[in-house]
Amino acid sequence: MKNVTVYLLLALVCLSSCQEDALCLKGSGTTNTYSIPLSSSFKNIALQGPVNLSVTQGDTLMVEVVAEPEMYNELEYQVKNNQLKIGYDQNVRCFETEVGVWVNVTMPDVDKISSDGISIIKSDGKLELNTLTIDIDGVGDVELSGTIQTQYLRVSGSAEIKNLKLQSAETYIDVQGSAEVDVAVSTMLDIEVDGSVDIHYSGDPMINKNVSGHLDLSKIN
Known about the structure:
Layout: H1 4-13, E1 23-26, E2 32-35, E3 44-50, E4 52-57, E5 62-67, H2 69-72, E6 76-80, E7 83-87, E8 92-96, E9 102-107, E10 112-123, E11 127-143, E12 146-202, E13 206-219
Parallel strand pairs: 1-8, 3-7, 3-10, 4-9, 4-10, 10-11, 11-12, 12-13
Antiparallel strand pairs: 2-5, 5-9, 6-7
């Protein structure tokens, strides 16, 4: 399948040509670190637009953004209903940067990470979680490590998910589109595919499959 990582890097440079009614952002190349004030706690993170996420598990809830000032000034964020929503309004159609926008979140626990747009999602250090849902609507590149009881990986669009270092008991994969997924799972691997998906897994789980399209499933020795 198409190399999602390369596509991500190209897309982050410029999403589309500018229109008269669109807002075009162009970075200077120099980044700053901005601390985001928090009015309440959250366990869910929703990314909008070309925003990248790095998650660290820690006792103190903290959010920082590393970005060029031109990108940060138009960034919108809100904490509501146990969710941090951060990203860009739909009128931001042009996005020219060589460094991207990184949201660095330290939090005790995380239940769900969703991306509506183009995002890189990674963990900084190992996560120890009960349940985590990753929901990609657009283009995503995901790489997490640690241990988890159950992970839900949902893709509507195109994604590359490299979670071999995230040891799971149960993994549920639901893809509508195209994806390349690497997972480590010991007990249950449940797969729903409507599109084209390559899945590489380690472990000896029971496997359930419901495929409409193409599935290339292989075990990693």
